[in-house]
Amino acid sequence: MAINKGKKVSIAEANRVVEDGLAGRDQSRVKGLAGLMQIRKSKAKLQSREQNRLKQRYGSKDERVVQLQRKFEANETYLSGLKMETYRAQPDKEVIGDDRWVAKGRVYDRRGCPIEGVKVTVMSHSDKPVEAIKPVMTDAQGRFRIEYKEAAKEGEVTTPEAGSVENETAASSNTASSSRISTNLDSQAALSSGLRINQGRYQQSIYLLAVDGSDDSLCAQTTLMVPKLGSINYRDIIFDTDRCSHLVSDLEKDRRASRFLGNASTTELHDLENEKASCQINEIRIDRCVRFKSIKEAQALGYDFCAYCFSKQRSKR
Q1: Span between the terminal Cα atoms of the chain, in Å
Q2: pTM for this prediction
């Protein structure tokens, strides 16, 4: 009987096939999300036309008009999350050196549309700007990028001068989405401004503050995080108010400033002041993020502790 030993495949070839497959899968996902978004947009237009027709015929208080309004609002909410997910799925995952820390993301309005020209600043835990890191502006796609580079150790040669700050913006004639701002800093300057580094870890928690530079300016901020050298923190910033709506309540502001972040998909509670790489917080979809003012508030809704943020003893998973 003949024995088929099979074809021997090298590890390098296997890795190449896997990488090519993942890249193709990401591209297919982006195309699928874009197609679904077009369908939802068409549906929103049809609902709007039908709603106007029913209003003219039966009045705005008719039950049929009210039900259609609820469907329209639900579709708008779904479309908002779909827009953000489509934008997030487009860029490839970035790999940086062990001497760098990057914070990047996008700024949206509450309908999921990117906002251009928003000033994003790195703030300390005591609500003061980190002077060592210069603020950046969002591009036409609402993107921002802040990069910190650790100073070279004694005896090493670096291309930029110590303590220099370099901003690089790549402009494109077709789209402003290629604009990118890179900031390189000296760690001694960081120490003088309160941003302390020890073994590749910031000892001081920070957050990102976005300010709309218009006359009636609005502010929005992310939750606290403790950056690490060699890692990338992705944060979406959402202005949940607009020009014709009231500001959010003080209770909601306190909740958004809290260190406790829940993943609605897994019902896991994360502590952003003790964030670990294994938590994969960057992978949580923005529409599945739930902010809690306290641990008790999360436990009341059935959330369990993350084994990496809190400890394996506290987690039931």
Answers
A1: 50
A2: 0.41
Task: Name which of 265, 71, 98, 292 is nearest 197 in CA terms.
Answer: 98
Question: What's the rounded Cα separation, in Å, for the pair 226 and 136?
Answer: 20
Q: What span, in angstroms and rounded, lies between the C-alpha atoms of 79 and 87?
A: 12
Percent of all residues in the chain with a pLDDT value above 90, rounded to a whole number: 3
Q: How many residues does the chain have?
A: 317
Token representation of residue 217 = 């300016």
- What is the CA 86 to chain-centroid distance, rounded? 13
Placement of tokens 């297919």 in the chain = 28
DSSP state, 84?
A: H
Helix (H, G, I), strand (E, B) or coil at 234: strand
What string of DSSP letters covers 102-135?
Answer: EEEEEEEETTS-B-SSEEEEEEETTS-B-TTS--
Model confidence at 204, in pLDDT bands (50, 70, 90)? low
Average pLDDT over residues 209-214: 77
Axis crossing angle, helix 11-58 with helix 63-89, rounded to the nearest 10 = 160
β-pairing, 237-239 vs 100-109, is: parallel
Pairing verdict, β 201-202 and 197-198: antiparallel
- Strand (E) or helix (H) holding 146: strand 143-149
Residue 200, phi-psi category: left (phi > 0), alpha (psi -120 to 50), beta (remainder): left
Q: Which helix (H) or strand (E) holds 45?
A: helix 11-58
Joined together, the tokens standing for residue 7 give 């074809």
Residue with tokens 């996902």: 29
Q: What Å distances lie between residue 147 and 6, 32, 80, 97, CA to CA?
A: 48, 32, 28, 11
